[in-house]
Structure formats: C-alpha cells, structure tokens
Design a protein that fits this description.
With 60 residues, this protein is α+β, with helices and mostly antiparallel strands. The N and C termini lie far apart (50 Å). It is flat and about 40 Å long. A two-stranded parallel ribbon has the order 1-2. The chain has one helix spanning 28-36; strands spanning 9-15, 40-45.
Length: 60
C-alpha cells in the first residue's frame, strides 16, 4: 500500500463582500508561525456571487 499524502496548505478567506465569517485569529504572528511550521497559506478574496447563488444573506 502506498503512502498517503497529507495536506500541507490551507485556503484562508481574507476578505470580500460575500465572506461568510470574520477571522479574528488571523494575525501576522499566526501567519508567521504557520509558515515556520511548513504550512502553505493561500489567501482568498470572495467577490460578488452570481444572483442565482443558492445562499441567503449574500449582498447583491
């Protein structure tokens, strides 16, 4: 049986009109700690969504 590759990166929602939640713990210190631990962080900005998006509470 082969080895299983574990994820080494995370997508982080950093802002945007339709971002679903706040990131109170997303500080420069935390980012530095994760980088030092070998994690890859991918910042994501969530822009406007299509009007047919099946979610409530989104800004139009």
């Amino acid at each position: 049986m082969g080895r299983v590759a574990l994820p080494r990166g995370w997508r982080l929602y950093i802002g945007g009109t339709n971002r679903g939640c706040a990131q109170a713990n997303l500080t420069s210190s935390w980012v530095s700690q994760q980088d030092a631990a070998g994690w890859h962080l991918f910042p994501i900005y969530v822009g406007l969504q299509a009007p047919c998006a099946p979610a409530s509470g989104l800004e139009n």
